[in-house]
Amino acid sequence: MNEIRNVSQLLNPELGRPVRILLVEDSPSDAAMTIAALREGRILNEMHVAQDGELAMAYLRRQPPFEDAARPDLVILDLNLPRMDGREVLAEVKQDPVLCSIPIVVLTTSSADTDIVRSYQLHANAYVSKPVGFEAFLGAIRGIEDFWLSLVRLP
Questions:
Q1: What pTM, to 2 d.p., does this model score?
Q2: Is the bond into 65 cis (omega within 30 degrees of 0)?
Q3: Of 13, 86, 87, 141, whose CB count within 10 A is highest?
Q4: Which of 143, 135, 134, 133 is nearest to 41 (CA)?
């Protein structure tokens, strides 16, 4: 499916609006688990899902058909994506003066040192390896939520 889905719209009273999250994830099961974990969390959010890097960049740059897309407060990015991989997305976002201040959390199956180092060289704000098992995965997502949506002040 080549589209971006708006999967939740809930009000965050502290911001006066939901926290806007762009999840860039090609695995439907990983996307569904991430969405479920964030829906159960304390911070209300508006989640949009892009299933490949090209769609993510079109969304971020507000290119057709996403001219009315709101700028996300946070991007959660898988590295292994079709059409344009997460490393390319990360490099383009962080080199773009309009987009570079958007925090990007890499959430991927890779725990390879080369991927971790390269992601930080490309200015990822955090790198999280997807744990195996549903409960561990939920814990990782809750950790992202606790830090990025509760503790940190987003631009």
A1: 0.89
A2: yes
A3: 86
A4: 143
